[in-house]
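Fig. S4 source data, part A: sequence.
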Amino acid sequence: MREAFRQPTSVWAIAFAATVSFMGIGLVDPILPAISEQLDASPSQAMLLFTSYLVVTAIAMFFTSWFASRAGVKRTLLVGLALVVVFAALAATAGSVGEIIGLRAGWGLGNALFISTALAAIVGATTGPSAGAIILYETALGIGLAIGPLLGGLLGSVSWRAPFAGTAVLMGVGFLAITLLLQREQRPARVSPLASLRALAHPALRTLALTAIFYNLAFFVLLAYSPFPLEAAAAAHGTEFGALGLGGVFFGWGVALAITSVFAAPQLTRRLGLVPTLLVTLGLLTVLMVALALFHGSMAGMIALIVGGGLLLGIMNTALTETVMEATDLPRGVASSAYSGVRFLGGAVAPAVAGPLAAATTAGAPYLLAAASLVLAIAMLAIGRRHLARVGAHHDLDPAQEAEAITAGDEA
């Protein structure tokens, strides 16, 4: 493990930028209620900050491997970082929620270009075994997912604009570090712009992509919608949660997700197998969503369930990604791009649907929708299980290959 952190400065530069990029996923979560209140927007409108970001990220993911094969890894990283800096900075100056929604779309494009290329760049820049660099990448992923909501809460307690400005500054530092420290590499082999779309014709990948659509819908109901009923539950108890309180809760969620993703999931998949781990975890997540629907008015209950959800989501992310990497003989970059693109389309639906559904029915209804979506994910996996005959050979991978398989899809 120590060797993983003995890396050239170029690797550290990419890892730093990757950490900040992953932070951007949960950064806006604690400030959604503040944006809704201060910009006179409904919760449904505020949650569209996730939808615009995820739709563009999903579409871009289908073509990032093609772009990197034309532009090169370093140039792709820098283009992605530059886009995030520009659109995050503009979001900090926005005067309406509509402007932020549009700017988050540009942010999503930059994030897709950067994140989809970061793992390959880290592995290519290391001078030692690739397993060490990949462990460092996993660490960056976990730290970013955990710190993003906390930083969003801390800066959001000053102003809802501060998290956007902070992201622009940090990504700007990452841009300079990669510009100065990362050497330009040989251009990767050419990839067809339609390679990822064609990959979905593979029955195994199609089965897992359909599973991921319904799973990711539930994932983003938990992440994007939960700040609103949590804030309401706190108000019902006579307290104000605020951006800092929400940031603390989702920091706990992110830490739980990171721990099980890196440590618990590999152990479970070795003991139970990949597909059984997926089915059990999806079942437990369904129960958790029903519990959230029942206890959405309890502040303590929601906090416990959200953090507990992080534990299950970490297992699910890792197991599903490793299954995708093992299920086909497609190139990993192509399989990961195809899977990630479809997966995040499912995530984009959740914020767009959850707010209007809650407004038309009850605050617990989006969680019941998430539970139903998870049941569909279980059905997709069970129906297509016959196509997953290749899954289960991960014990034959060397450590570097297994680590890469675990993290390749989570990069999105």
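Fig. S4 source data, part B ends here. DSSP finds 17 helices and no strands in the chain.
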